[in-house]
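Researcher: I'd like a structural prediction for the single chain below. Treat it as a standalone chain; there are no partners to consider.
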Amino acid sequence: MKHSKHTRSRSQSRNLNSYSNRDISSKSSKTKKALDIISKILFPIEMMLVIALIIYATLIEIFPLTYIFIFIVLLGILAGVHIRLLSGKKRRIKRKRIISICMSAVMFVVSGFGMSYFGIINNAIGDLTIDGAQQENEAQVDDISKHPFLVYLSGDDTLNASEINESGRSDVNMVVAINPQQKRVLMVSTPRDYYVPLYGDKNKMDKLTHAGSYGIECSMETLEKLYDIKFNYYAKLNFKSVVDIVDAVGGVTVNSEYNFSSGHSYTGKMYFFKKGENFLDGDKALAFARERKSFKNGDRQRGIHQQVLIKAVVEKAISPSMLIPSNIENMLKAISNNTKTNFSEKEIKKLISYQMSTMSEEWTFDSISVDGKNGNNYTYSYPNQLLYVMIPDTDTVEKAKLALDAVINGEEIVDGTESNVSSSK
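Model: Treating it as a single chain, here is the predicted structure.
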């Protein structure tokens, strides 16, 4: 009897163990099948998504072609590994399926990040206020990253305008020479009160700032005659542009030559600037760039501060930290909402692509501010009223001409301009 019970007990134990093993085996088999199905479904989907990303990046011409080639090679390697995993032996199927699914997830994230990145840039560039007459300027698209060009940078002096005015006095009148192959930028600032002939007509002597009242073309032609140059492009901004762009890049640090205060901010708040380094948010940056009465050389010092601010913003904008999609989106939105330009969309994309492909290389920034003497005279815009004007110092104008020619021609700035030129990398 005892023997029978003992035999029955062992038999029941064997049956229970057998049932347990079958149950575990069944569950393991179901898990393997589930993982196998998920992996096989994800693989073609992820491949289509990545291919779509490559096509999209190629069409909008932002991502450098070298990067696209590297990306395709890496994709091929990943795809090969993935196919190997899918055709792996049964004994390690679970581990391989899990690795395969993890690879799918990584490729999904990379593809989604890329689509978001390019979509943000493309949409923001599309929001720029571009002069329609210049959008079809296809001949210069391929040249913009290869050959030097000149930009007129104009600053609308309307404080609370949400849009760029077609005409209006310009507080900022800057000639920017860019030599992309040499990674070199020269900024030439001209005081707003410079007494110059509008359109180069000697019978229309006026302040440079008044030229903007007759349209941006008048300002451009006036400066072209002054410096014997021909602009390729222009960009017109307002006060809100400065605030939004500086905030979009997370603020900038600038060096001040003086201790001074300024209330010329967007909010009207008074700020104090110390001699040396100052960290600026958007509102404080506008106050820094607009102040002139605190300085002995007045508007000339203001032009210097504007150059310092532009350099700081550009250096921050092209830094690796700005490559995060949210940062790019904020920066481009700030520009597109407050800028009017005749750069075409394709040219802007070409420049972004070029900058991305040469990000490790340093750019050199040179700056000049032409000078003059205080005076009073009648102007074309106000013929019956004596106004303060600045009589151009022809020596500084000639030095600026030589420096512009040097940058455009890929030459060193000639001796004799050092007193007017500040350079930094």
